[in-house]
Input
Amino acid sequence: MTDYRIEKDSLGEFKVPGDAWYGIQTARALANFAISGRKPDIDFIRAHVQVKLAAARANTQPGWLETGVSDAIANACLRILNGEFLDQFVVDRFQAGAGTSHNMNSNEVIANIANVALGGCRGGYAPVHPNDHVNMGQSTNDTIPTAIRVALLAKLPRLLDAVEQMAMQFDRLAEQEHDTVKSGRTHLQDAVPTTIGREFAAYSWILRRCARQLSEMRPLLCATGLGGSAAGTGLNTSPDYPQRVARELSELTAENITVGDLIAQMQSVFDLQALSSAIRGLALELTRIANDLRLLASGPRTGLGEITLPAVQPGSSIMPGKINPVMFEMLNQVCYQVLGQDAAVGFMTQAGQLELNVMMPALGSALFDAMDWLTNAIRAATDKNLKGLIVNRDRCENFIHDSVGLATLLNTRIGYVRAAEIAKESTATGKPVREIVAARGLMSETEFNRLVLAAAHGIDA
Output
């Protein structure tokens, strides 16, 4: 007994593994595209099967898809969506333009499952054919972009939840350290006082602003070109197919799937570029915040040391006891990779020609990676480091009263010139500003401390 079967297509015969649920075109793709070693994204697999299920239901009407065939396709799709046969989606992420290989991978797997359920055999493609029935009224050119959008819609809530969880931790720290005064720093030099609470509250605010921008991408992602068929004209589609399939897909995904301009949605990936830009914005802000936390945790004795991050692993193979801010180093690395994915999306966005952008497989993969990597990295940094962050209040107090920047608080009381004299004396002698102020009889050290706290909160003492 052979461990393969022979299938035939327009190019001739080709060997297919005997136990495979996919068919000849998938087998050819495996031979052609041994590139990255990465199989399709799981959300994308599920999204594409949802498109096939929606199409089968939309095509169930007289003269198009018979009920028996439609039911067999639908049942096959539901089995996949319930977790069966996922290992049969095997085409490399870098493949033929537009994603024809993945489209046929789905068509063949669904057809074979349906045929075996109806008493047929794998590779026989009767009564259910991959092209004639599973792919009815469809093209790679409209199903793949739609599946990419649906997959991104599935990933979006996870990313938003990860961002919200990080923001909530900054909220907690902001409330906890509401009155923890510290030296602000501009140009990496001592500046006027602020509080840990205000510093961390700002991180929370910007993260939620990034999340709002991401949320605003949802309607763009819901506007698909499904029903455009090969060139956006709707060739070979059943009556009212775009509207019917949009309704079916909306029900399956619990998203408000709408019909965009079918030709424009095939020519342009503007919506995906907009999402990539929003992801890029989040990555840039996360990079900045991660760098701030690494600076604040630097030391612990010869750096700032205003915060301590939980130790999750030894920091050096040679220096005993060394602990590094590894979770936020990891977050930095992920953010830089995400910026690279955004650059790739930008190049691929303008690489479409005429009626189609053929870069869809790699473009989709870049967005899938960006969202998954950020989601996982944000969660890990939040759970393993941010939740256990400790503010070193004594360190903050020592820094703030060593800061010459406190002389700025005297501007409105004694004028800039006299305040500058106090700053110079503090710099020359090393005496704290509050000590000099008290020695000159301008105010007591206690009064000056109240002035510092008020200034840190942005109010007049």
About this structure: The chain has 18 helices and eight strands. The chain has a mean pLDDT of 95. Residues 109 and 427 are 76 Å apart (CA to CA). The longest strand covers residues 189-195.
